Every structure is written in C-alpha cells, then in structure tokens.
Amino acid sequence: MKHYKLISSEQTADGIRFTTYGIAGENTSFADVSTDRSAVEEMINRINTEQLEESQLMYFIKDELDK
Fold it and tell me: In the chain, which ranges are E strands?
C-alpha cells in the first residue's frame, strides 16, 4: 500500500517569510508544490486513495497545478 505524506518548508522572498507544502512518498518527494496547505492535502488524499505509483507523482502534480 502506497502512503504519501505532507511535507513543509519555510521560505523567504523579498523579506517575506512563508510556508510551502509538498508531497513525499517512500522514495520520491516534491517540495514547494504550493503555499495552499489544503490543496496539497487534497492531492495527497486522492493519490493515497488511488494508490498512485511514485513514478506517476510528478505528472499528477503537474496536471493538478495546470487546472
């Protein structure tokens, strides 16, 4: 069973500090997917439900961000 989780990191741009959220699998992770935590959590819920393979994670994220 695949299990993806939320990851976060603190960023600073032009003196403004903010948090970005990403997705981590067992062997693959994508940081800084979005600053919208709920959007990334929704993605994680979907990919965990659908048991997405890690090799497809990049394509899934790209498709979601292109919406």
Answer: 5-13, 16-24, 29-34
Instruction: Kindly report the average pLDDT of the chain as a whole number.
Output: 95
pLDDT tens digits along 46-58 = 999 999 999 999 9
Q: How many CA atoms lie within 13 A of 66 on its CB side?
A: 6
C-alpha 25/C-alpha 31 separation (Å) is 11
2 has a pLDDT exceeding 90: no
Report the amino acid identity of residue 23: I
Task: Please state, in angstroms and rounded to a whole number, the distance separating the CA atoms of residues 51 and 60.
Answer: 12
Residue pair 20/40 in contact (Cβ under 8 Å)? The answer is no
